[in-house]
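Reading group handout, session on sequence-to-structure problems. Before we discuss, look at one worked example. The prompt was deliberately terse, the way you'd type it at a terminal:

> structure AMP-binding protein

The input record follows.
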Amino acid sequence: MNDPGPVLLTDEGRFSGSALAHRVTERAAVFADCGLKPGQVVMAPDAPALDLILTILALGQIGAGIFPYRSSLDAVARLALARSAGVEWLWQPDSLDLIPLADQTQRPPIAPETRVALLIKTSGSSGQPRIVMHGYPGLLASAQRVNARLGVTTDSTWLCCLRPSHIGGAAILYRAALAGSNLRLQTGFDAPTVRRELEIHGVTHVSLVPPMLARLLDLGGRAPPSLRVVLIGGQALSRPLAERALAAGWPLWITYGMTETGSQVATSGPLTPADGALDPSLVTPLPGVEIAAPSCDVPPQRLRIRGPMLMLGYANPERRAGEGLAEGGWFEPADLGCLSHDGRLRILGRADEIRVIGGTNVSLTRVAQVVQEAPGVSEVQIVTTPDTVWGHRLTAVYAGTSDEAELAAWCQTHLSGPECPRAFLRLERLPLLDSGKYDRARIAALVRASAG
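And the output record:
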């Protein structure tokens, strides 16, 4: 007789709902026998994927927390992370050992409402990574609202090709578990493999960052017919890439959020051109989310966000809540934005991506968006270097068929003088982090190397 429950599919096999539940209960018993207590935290590698799923669900039964880390992380770096967050245990899936990392008699009992469910590192795509703490109520609030917005049900099939050691991947696991939907785990992102997974397994929901979407589109063809939601987040989606995807039938939904907000706090409906003008920068806050921002009729300001899915705070050895949050529970990211007349949020780049060039405030986000629309440009990032005369010098690092002289001429007619890049570096592909975002540090290093 077939198991009617959800199915988990990994490279290690196919697991029905009842079989998975049995293995989770077994894993929870192993943890309890080792002395794991509610409120404590276990570090575990993000591969093998099945083992991480078992560990997360088993820890949920106990009321303990998980700190997933990239499986390639060396022992010294891993121990440093554990100490910075006061982690008590290390799980080693190869030997099925739960190893104590700290003197657990020194920590007082942790109240259920302040227990850490998930510790997760920020991507570090634009700065120094930090470790974020989330509680079970916040993860539940996020999963409930996102599932409702995206129509995730027991009939849905999620493909997770984002690493579960990043918030984008981890959040999918909680959403699928809450909804009882099918889940397909793909280790890492490889465009041909992901394309086959989308088609073979009848995937309805997938989450991508824009560079991943671009690589899937490069394979050609129409979107798989089973797809209902292609969630795009992590960084701004350019209008040319959105238009290209919509023309091929990809059902795009734009999302805004970050590790500190437990993934998304605002999400559009299905993206469609309106009166010929496509705007992928507008998103609607999820229920219960408060956004403090000015009207779009005035200059943008840094956002302030409050809601039930916000982090407990940045990690510290005592796992004390509140670090990184302002009075009243507000979180202030580095993002600039405004609210439209109908209450939608427009993201306008980052406050730390404004540069003063020749006495003029220049938004690197706007420059990148304009250059992205140039013929023969498929990907672009803008890098700044100091300039003794102008303050900063812009370099456009891009991929595409346009040569540097053609792109320079195009920029001269579409950007103001201070906004115009003074140098161009063409690459076959822009390097990515394992989160799928552009590796800005590596891109900046390439610019420095090219300048001699």
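Points for discussion. First: The mean pLDDT is 88. Second: Residues 379 and 399 are 5 Å apart (CA to CA).
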